[in-house]
Amino acid sequence: MFALIGPTASGKSDLALKLAKKLNYEILSLDSLSIYKEIDIASAKPSKQDLAQVKHYGVNEIYPNEKFDVMKFIEIYKKIPHKNIIIVGGTSFYLKAMIDGISQMPTISKEIKKEAKKFTYEDIKKIDPIFASKISKNDTYRISKAAEIFLATKTPPSEYFKKHPPIPIIPNIPIFEIQIDRNHLKEKIKKRTKKMFEMGLIDEVAYLEKKYKDRRLPALKAIGIKEVLDYFNGIYNKNELFEKIVTNTSRLAKRQQTFNKTQFKNKISAPIDKLYEIILKKI
User: Fold this and answer.
1) 3-state secondary structure 123-168
2) What whole-number distance in Å separates Cα of residue 236 and Cα of residue 29?
3) pTM of the model as a whole
4) Contact 92/30 with Cβ under 8 angstroms?
């Protein structure tokens, strides 16, 4: 088992497929959009032919209106009957979470979930200044989770996590990173976005909006989908829509590169044309 990381549009999926065929491995996709059924173009998920050639986990697992978080990926990983897998995807946060581990959460009732949504950053700061100092004022997800822990256990989150330390899920996994120049990556992003338009991105988003009728769904806030929804509202023309998706995807890629640089110290990085041979020698 090993992991392949890199920014969006860097060629991870193609390299993973090539390696999986050579090594007789299967693939666990760490992609927060490919996990959804019906989101095929916006997610740039592997083609039906590729999915037929190599078994993929973490692809087409749930519908866009179903609940999803990092625990879902851990659940999928634990169900894989063997460990001859390549973990690949741009959502490196999930890989980091599985390496570091996740603390066991207390049982959270529907009532607590509802009450927790009322909490603000200032509320968490009063309850637990230590925890509050480690999160952003705009991090509504962690604010809500902290409130849930406090309401369920009557314990500040930082104290709760001390008593329930995280247990690593996949420690000591070899990590390989695709190195790519940002200008080259920008061109690849443009080409991929153009291909998405040609494949019918706008029609796919129209279908999703018509079926689910709720733009607040996390899946419909993803890059490539949210911009098309704005296009439907008349905010952009088609050329502006293309440029907006390219710009937002490029910003995402930059954040991914920064995350990978700061969070994964023991990794091997190389350009994609060299990484294939490096991985074959190491695995």
Assistant:
1) HHHHHCHHHHCCCCCCCHHHHHHHHHHHHHHCCCHHHHHHHCCCEC
2) 32
3) 0.85
4) yes
CA separation for the pair 196, 41 (Å, rounded): 6
Structural domain including 13 reads 2-99+169-282
**Which CATH number covers residue 112?**
1.10.20.140
Per-residue confidence of the chain (283 residues) as pLDDT tens digits?
999 999 999 999 999 999 999 999 999 999 999 999 999 999 999 999 999 999 999 999 999 999 888 888 999 999 999 999 999 998 999 999 999 988 888 999 999 999 999 999 999 999 999 999 999 898 888 899 999 999 999 999 999 999 999 889 997 899 999 999 999 999 999 999 999 999 999 999 999 999 999 999 999 999 999 999 999 999 999 999 999 999 999 999 999 999 999 999 889 999 999 999 999 999 8
